[in-house]
Amino acid sequence: MAGSAGGRRLEVPVSGTRPTSERVREALFSRLEHLGVVDGARVLDLCAGSGALGLEAASRGAIEVALVDSAKDAVTVCWRNARSLGLAGVRAVRASAAGYLAGVAAAPVDLVLIDPPYGMSAAGLGAILAPLARAEDPWLAEGSVVVVERATRSSEPDWPVGLRRFALKKYGETTVWFAEPSGADNY
Questions:
Q1: pLDDT tens digits, residue range 4-20?
Q2: Which of 44, 105, 110, 167 is 20 to 30 Å from the Cα of 177, by its Cα?
Q3: Which structural domains are found in the chain, ordered by start?
Q4: Which residues neighbour 145 within 8 Å (Cβ) at sequence distance 6 or greater?
Q5: Contacts of residue 60, Cβ cutoff 8 Å, sequence gap at least 6
């Protein structure tokens, strides 16, 4: 971890997760801070696992972070990690990412971090991305960024109408895709 929780270790669920490497996390957040989308942000960490990405955002100044995972053990670990780091504004939610996004956004978010299992199908990832692009009851604030982490061998996500990729970065076996709302119809 960097930021206010710098140097602290996180607990990881016993099984079912593949935490983002420290190298990838550091590079990702360096890019996000350069884009100005972390400090003061509202953040969704979908398929959160240990919560490492969302907790990194909170440690670097995000004001509100929802750690969302469908596995009970992962949500428990997310909650314990958030508590042990003493980060305000962090909550852990047990729900599938697509199920969580089927609801109404309390307020649009500035940053969405999606690190699904590498084996997730394109359709499964599409079910997560589609609600982010909806025009009614929008999830995304103006100027928001959506980050998708996938195995390098995976194909590019099928971006729904309303989201467009603006960058990608490869780190060994990991590719990070960056997307943004693609038009005024999203707001």
A1: 445 556 656 665 565 66
A2: 105
A3: 37-186 (3.40.50.150)
A4: 32, 35, 37, 110, 111, 112, 178, 179, 180
A5: 2, 3, 4, 29, 33, 38, 39
